[in-house]
Amino acid sequence: MTINFRYVNVDISETLNAFTEEKLSKLSNRYEFLIGATVRFKHDENSHSKGKICDIELSLPGPRLFATSDEAKYEVAVRETISDLEKQLKKRKEVYKTH
What we know:
99 residues; alpha+beta; Double Stranded RNA Binding Domain; four-stranded mixed sheet; 42% helix; Ribosome-associated translation inhibitor RaiA; RHF/RaiA; RHF-like
């Protein structure tokens, strides 16, 4: 699975890239039909409590899956976003099983 990282109003972080790749590789091992992922990290300066946004879009056969989360830390946002994507992938896998 190929992973593309995009940073919007945020400095590039190799440790954040490695953390996200590790989490996404677990998904890739569990769901072999994944093709790629686009990960966007954003910083919302208008949000005082949170403001660290992680968007992940997964490419796979059929419609793409997308999830986003807004947390106080990027690592927490990554975990929350991947958790949301995993729920969507479980539903999608059930569809593949019926065919």
